[in-house]
Write a structure and sequence with these properties.
The chain has 462 residues and is an alpha/beta fold. It is 32% helix and 21% strand. The model has no long low-confidence stretch (mean pLDDT 91).
């Protein structure tokens, strides 16, 4: 009976794909939703690729998954993935439906799936990855995720015992997941910008997991990410199997050293988040048997997905578009810190304002008080344009961070924000948007591009 329900679900879902194409609704996870409704154990019966790679973690999993997909495709591999759907069980089910023939046989040898951490209990009982990359575990949406150690416990309970883990040694929460599993560690050696103590509002791991004394750091990057040790009992972060070193921000390169040698890699940008993304992807590909030379070639042709980071020089100004995940103080803080550390005068359009379910998110405002808006209190940040339904919440938080009120501008609608730009000489424009407003962020960014293009043409005629 179970197999019969599976085939009924498969064929119904296949028919729904045709209907979605006719109605131009491609790239949704509806086929998987339908299949799981008709056959709750669809993932159990679905045929899967022989080799499966899973990528999970609080931040970076989408970027790293896309990077790995592009690089494996460069190598001529046909890779089944859930890039066009969601990263929960219905999105993975949709991918398996797309990748199966009418008899349920999977047509792909490799599967690369981005998996939401909380979906572990719905996915891993039916899918056994050969490799799993965990980017990091940090403070995320309080309403959905609680504390990162709660998420670590979920992963430890449901990750298959035979899965080899590729873990961030600089994150003592994620690197201790599933301690009985085979594992390797990646990390980044000391950088000039590192600290000794946390200056962020949140630090999710402050005490030794063995003796409960306060942890100290050889070097600290942000929040709890860095090389930690306990002066009381000797506990320390694990050694790197894959070590990022010699980060060169001017040349946009990094070396990654392992037991077999050193590779020299192109960085997509100099943000610490993306440096970790590069090192993690190298570590996984090395575990899969690729040489440094092969991976260097992949990175030389790689670009970050434009919906998450994009920069464009227009006349004397540069337009940046960056994803700053709302309801995620950790991720948004990293973006603020990155912008604050860049040279030149700046104007910011801040529109990560929860465009989705505004009424039912209890944390619509609480997350901003965990987020370091203080990183926007720089003299060279001349104008911050607050727009959308949360503009006054952001105003209050910025005032509490010490940002002078005269540097704040307001627009009720996000599409009115570009008109509030002051266009100081040689300044750079940053459009920040959340996961709920990627399309709107693109629209606003296009409006800014038009304004900057017209300004550049006018200045060129003078």
């Amino acid at each position: 009976m179970g197999k019969l329900r599976f085939y009924i679900a498969l064929w119904a879902a296949k028919l729904s794909i045709v209907a979605l194409k006719i109605t131009k609704h491609n790239g949704t996870n509806f086929p998987g939703v339908l299949a799981l409704k008709l056959c709750p154990q669809f993932l159990k019966y679905a045929d899967k690729p022989k080799k499966i790679i899973a990528v999970t973690g609080t931040n970076g999993k989408t970027t790293v998954s896309n990077m790995l997909l592009d690089m494996l495709t460069m190598d001529g591999k046909q890779v089944l993935n859930n890039k066009m759907g969601s990263n929960i069980n219905s999105g993975i089910a949709s991918s398996l439906i797309y990748g199966a023939n009418l008899f349920g046989k999977c047509k792909y040898e490799i599967g690369l799936f981005e998996v939401d951490e909380r979906s572990a209990l719905r996915v891993y009982p039916y899918m056994k990855p050969q490799y799993m990359l965990i980017t990091n575990l940090s403070r995320d949406s309080i309403m959905r995720n609680g504390h990162p150690e709660y998420i670590a416990d979920i992963l430890t309970k449901y990750i298959p015992k035979e899965t080899k883990l590729v873990l961030n040694a600089d994150d003592l929460i994620s690197c201790r997941v599933a301690p009985e599993n085979p594992r390797v560690y990646f990390g980044i050696e000391k950088m000039d910008t590192d600290l000794k103590q946390c200056i962020n509002l949140i630090n999710d791991l402050q005490i030794c997991p063995q003796c409960h004394h306060r942890l100290e750091y050889e070097y600290l990057r942000y929040n709890h990410i860095g090389k930690a040790y306990c002066p009381a009992c000797g506990f320390k972060a694990p050694a790197y199997d894959y070590a990022g070193e010699n980060v060169n921000a001017s040349d946009m390169t990094i070396d990654v050293r392992d037991a077999s040698g050193v590779g020299h890699y192109k960085l997509p940008n100099e943000s610490v988040f993306n440096i970790y993304n590069v090192v993690s992807a190298v570590a996984l590909l090395r575990e899969m048997g690729y040489s440094h030379a092969q991976i260097e070639g992949f990175f030389s042709r790689l670009n970050i997905v434009g919906s998450r980071y994009d920069e464009e020089k227009i006349g004397s100004r540069t337009l940046y578009r960056l994803l700053a995940k709302e309801k995620n103080a950790f991720a948004t803080t990293r973006v603020f810190d990155y912008i604050g550390g860049l040279p030149g005068d700046k104007e910011i359009i801040l529109m990560n304002s929860c465009q989705g379910d505004m009424k039912h998110w209890s944390e619509n405002t609480c997350w901003v008080y965990d987020c370091d808006f203080e990183f926007l209190n720089h003299d060279n940040i001349k104008n911050i344009i607050l727009c959308g339904p949360r503009r006054f919440d952001h105003k209050l938080r910025l005032l509490l961070a010490g940002v002078p009120e005269e540097r704040l501008s307001f627009a009720e609608k996000e599409t009115d924000a570009p008109a509030k730009l002051k266009l100081f000489k040689n300044d750079n424009i940053y459009v920040l948007y959340g996961t709920d407003s990627i399309a709107l962020g693109k629209k606003v960014g296009d409006m800014v591009r038009k304004i900057l293009t017209e300004k550049a043409e006018k200045e060129g005629r003078q």
